């Protein structure tokens, strides 16, 4: 069976140097997740320690993501961008539609651990259970409990 084509649009995350730790954490947290492909530094590749993750394609609950570690000084591509000025911003977040309070609480506990809680878990005017957190890697997440089945119905709706 041929491999499914990569989606046209996906989230691309650029980490300073902990992409592999982040990918392992995220894929262990979300069901139906896997690392699809990795590219690692080769021996004697300038700037990179051998074996360090450079790039990965992975899925979280079936959604595709790509990530990279920023090239270190001396590595190919380091001079192409002002890498030291780049950081994640809470203005951009990954939204997670949770079907149950238990699912919400599990994600909230894991993603907020060693991170920052921007809006604590609770009821808000727009949601019965919502939270906004930045995890220990600097990636922001908006967690929301949605009415049961809403996510499945929206995904099944014809385009």
UniProtKB/TrEMBL annotation:
Provide the PhnB-like domain boundaries. 8-143
What's this protein's name?
VOC family protein
* Gene3D superfamilies the UniProt entry points to: 3.30.720.100, 3.30.720.110
In Pfam terms, one family for this protein is: 3-dmu-9_3-mt
Q: Return the InterPro entries for the record.
A: 3_dmu_93_MTrfase, Glyas_Bleomycin-R_OHBP_Dase, PhnB-like
Which superkingdom heads the taxonomic lineage of this protein's source?
Bacteria
Q: Name residues in a coiled coil.
A: none
| Cited CDD domains | PhnB_like
């Amino acid at each position: 069976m041929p491999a499914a084509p990569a989606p046209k649009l996906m989230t691309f995350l650029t980490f300073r140097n902990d992409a592999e730790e982040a990918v392992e954490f995220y894929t262990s947290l979300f069901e139906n997740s896997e690392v699809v492909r990795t590219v690692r530094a080769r021996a004697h590749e300038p700037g990179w320690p051998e074996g360090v993750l450079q790039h990965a394609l992975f899925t979280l609950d079936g959604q595709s993501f790509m990530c990279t570690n920023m090239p270190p000084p001396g590595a190919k591509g380091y001079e192409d961008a002002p890498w030291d000025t780049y950081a994640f911003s809470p203005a951009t977040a990954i939204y997670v539609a949770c079907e149950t309070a238990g699912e919400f609480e599990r994600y909230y506990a894991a993603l907020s651990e060693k991170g920052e809680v921007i809006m604590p878990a609770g009821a808000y005017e727009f949601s019965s259970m919502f939270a906004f957190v930045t995890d220990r890697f600097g990636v922001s997440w908006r967690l929301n409990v949605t009415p049961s089945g809403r996510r499945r119905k929206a995904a099944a709706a014809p385009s």
